Amino acid sequence: xxxxxxxxxxxxxxxxxxxxxxxxxxxxxxxxxxxxxxxxxxxxxxxxxxxxxxxxxxxxxxxxxxxxxxxxxxxxxxxxxxxxxxxxxxxxxxxxxxxxxxxxxxxxxxxxxxxxxxxxxxxxxxxxxxxxxxxxxxxxxxxxxxxxxxxxxxxxx
Amino acid sequence: xxxxxxxxxxxxxxxxxxxxxxxxxxxxxxxxxxxxxxxxxxxxxxxxxxxxxxxxxxxxxxxxxxxxxxxxxxxxxxxxxxxxxxxxxxxxxxxxxxxxxxxxxxxxxxxxxxxxxxxxxxxxxxxxxxxxxxx
Lengths: 157, 135
Description:
The structure holds two protein chains of two kinds.
Chain A: H1 2-22, H2 33-39, H3 53-60, H4 75-87, H5 116-125, H6 128-131
Helix pairs in contact in A: 3-4
Chain B: H1 2-20, H2 24-36, H3 45-53, H4 67-70, E1 78-79, E2 85-86, H5 101-116, H6 122-133
Antiparallel strand pairs in B: 1-2
Helix pairs in contact in B: 2-6, 3-6
């Protein structure tokens, strides 16, 4: 009887811990309307917690050649967006976000998809054929698999 | 005589562009077009159609045509290279696209650079909008 109970307990803990592990891919949704509108015109407006401040600063300094696209904005809008992104960056709070795991201080990654945390999370779970699906198009297309990504919810994997 | 001729051209261009519909955006581009080309006699939906559908070689390799992202049917939803949906360009569906000069200039600025490798002329911008108004 005792053995049976502890078995149930063990299974319950196991289920609970797995579901916690899957339910922690949450990021604060973007609140700024300009950031939502301008970044979100071409791609999902990525939550700023996914890159460090120095990365956002560099990205916003090069909008006329943004990964091969001319995404230039007027100076006022550029500054506004840059400030929001840096304030909410992975290192914008008093603790470092998990996206900084494995990122050295002298590295300034420009693509979220090159962040060690992103790479590890996707290498473990996403088969190559999923990336080649025509509906995916690009690794920047989070919404192809994470339907609630705009709300900062990346649990669905 | 010369000013009479100019007046005539202006009158013709106004009469040509008015029936399509008067829009603050087009009026502005028409003024700029006259400054670009003194013989400018109104925007052409046909020239706009050709501009929209042509494959160009002077821009970026990934985007040789407007249709690369917008699809060949202006009434259809397009997709950016990053997979985001682009609302249709056709006036019959997305009329609100053509109210805001700043917005229009932002996108012409970016996309003429990507597709043509240069800025668009006011005539091209007006032709493009005039074509979309027929859609």
